[in-house]
Description:
24% helix; 4 helices; globular; single chain; 25% strand
Amino acid sequence: MESKEAFRTRCLQKLKHHSSRNKLRQDAAVLAQLSHLLKGVKGKTILCYLPLFYEVNIRKLIRSLRRQNRLLVPFMEGVSFKVVKFRLPIKKKKFSVLEPNDSQMVFSKIDIAIVPVVGVDGALRRIGHGKGMYDRFFSSLKCHPIVIFVQRGDCFTTQHLGESHDVQADFYITPNHFIRRRGINDFRVFNRRRCSAI
């Protein structure tokens, strides 16, 4: 059985390789599925992210969503983050993370969260960079949003590597797959060729 750390390392290497070739085509495939999904999901307050070079570039989607929705992005604070309203200018911070200016506004409700992942385990739990920032943030929410994981390349294992506090997706979108969770450990995989239960 592969460890969580080994899986994370393997996924990061794969993502960084994906980022150097075909990234525009891969991002377009993810954004098409994500845009279609968002049309059918109700919610006006959306948590997005400002992408690192190997994450799906959702900036074009952000521009279109901001006309009719309240968009929030993470703002790092110590070992976790708070959310601030997306607005310009955007500045590059530590670890090449992009952030808008800080804000004192408090957002108590998020309807939808679009979350980048390093990998995803067999229970659709997020494998991130190992810092636990998303886990701590989501555990602080009173109302849990619809969670959509996005990734430029497939890095999925059927093993259950995550823990109960790890963020769990309702949807997982890659260029080749659209996975919807139906229960705690039950989901359906949709791709161009088939639709089957796992």
